[in-house]
Fold:
Amino acid sequence: MARNPRVAARSLDGEMMIMSGRDSTLFTLNKTATILWQSADGTTPLDEIVEHRIVPEFEVGKAEALQDAEALARDLASHEILQISEEPIPQQSVSSGDAAGDAR
Amino acid sequence: MPVRVNTSDPAFLCTLQDRYSGFLTSADSSERAEIEFDVDLTPITFADPAADVRVTHRLGRWSLQRGDFLAEWEPASRRGRIRQTANPYSIDAVLRIVHTLVLARRGGFLLHSASAIRNGKAFLFAGVSGAGKTTISRLAPPDATLLTDEISYVRRTDVRNRDAGYTAFGTPFTGELAKLGENVSAPIAALYLLAQGPENRIDPVAPGDAARSLLANVLFFAEDEELVQSTFHSAFEFVSRVPVSRLTFVPDARVWDLIG
Structure:
């Protein structure tokens, strides 16, 4: 799972906002989607993200959290915010308005 | 941003001179135009006279199309051509769009907002149609200088300085008031999101809401990922440097007691 490099992203006061470069649609991510976005480095599998980031944060069972995370990842991919694949995805930098290229 | 328009039609030239009076410079001015257009007034039969605007980029050239005009503009040469009838609203739309393209690369934007200078500082009043841009412009006191009642021109004061603020410039892009802004500028002290209500009051706006509201009011037409991203980041830079509040007002002049 990787961040789509064709979007622009900014975090402001704890809110992660994403704009599609293709059609200018603006998305505000909820807390879980923000974790997925921040963790989507192209190599870390979703079940690891769920185990290490989501389960401790929300105190839910892993199986249930993984099911929800898979649905959310598919939804984010359908909006071209994330790219999902069974194989590692080379991560390109996402436009974040600074030289580092990481979402703030 | 100096703009040069070339037309061989004397009547259309008079129309433009009248429409943009106050923003005109001498034709032999040494200032180089940053945007230059040749206008061909032709009785074109457009495929769809009601077509929405489309702004696309290919091979270093922008193509601008709407039901009433066809235009091209090349940033490298700063020149372009417009095919339209003698309708001043057509060229006005082209100039607005090209300004959004140029400003996006410079950290600025055009904003659906009225703006005015008071006590040496510029104040922006943003909102969709009906929010009160024209009303608050009409209510402006004599010591306020109106920059626009419809489309504010916003630019980084110094693009080389990361800490620099933003400046608002007067524009000839009018709304319902049909009154040109003054051709002056000032540093922006505040952006107010307009709402009409039972009393005059100013309320804080959360940063995320400020960014969303700003983006909703930025004029942007280009189908171009790079410019979309530039404009997105410009909006966030703006809200990190300029206070954004909600201004609720009743339609009388006392609202200006809160401004400046």
About this structure: Residues 99-104 of chain A have pLDDT under 50 and may be disordered.
